[in-house]
């Protein structure tokens, strides 16, 4: 009895993990790749990059510089996890964040966790342009916001 219970405890997690990854639908090929947010005067000192993998993983990097010339890094934020698309609806599961701020000691703060799936807005892709529409809360009131990204093209 104890051996059967031990074997089930060892085999069940492996079986569940195998089922979870094998049944996930493949992301559409047009989203896979590296994307850079279009620069605007209000955000000229911000570098914002998205990366979507064919394996359903993503990374989002935001770097804030002291000036628009991107000379001295002031702070950065990195988010990693899984993504899935349901039509145009983007869902993210954040599993790791890394925050760094030069003004608060310059020590990276890393947070790991299993994450939960969350609605991240609408994604529309046309050629090499990705428009990401989501809700922000300036002054604690919801505002629909659209960020435009351009796909990095490799030579």
Q: Shape from CA axes? A: globular
Number of helices: 1
CATH names the topology as Lipocalin
Q: What is the string of helix and strand elements? A: HEEEEEEEEE
Low-confidence stretches are 1-22
Describe this protein's structure.
It contains 1 helix and 9 strands; from the N terminus they run αβββββββββ. The protein has an 8-stranded antiparallel barrel. The protein has one helix at 2-22, and strands spanning 33-37, 46-52, 57-65, 73-86, 89-101, 109-112, 118-126, 129-136, 143-151. By secondary structure, it is mainly β. It has one domain: Lipocalin (Beta Barrel).
Features:
155 residues, mainly beta, Lipocalin, 50% strand, globular, disordered N terminus
Summarize the structure.
The protein is mainly beta. Helices cover 14% and strands 50% of the residues.
Give the SSE map.
Elements: H1 2-22, E1 33-37, E2 46-52, E3 57-65, E4 73-86, E5 89-101, E6 109-112, E7 118-126, E8 129-136, E9 143-151
Antiparallel strand pairs: 1-2, 1-9, 2-3, 3-4, 4-5, 5-6, 5-7, 7-8, 8-9
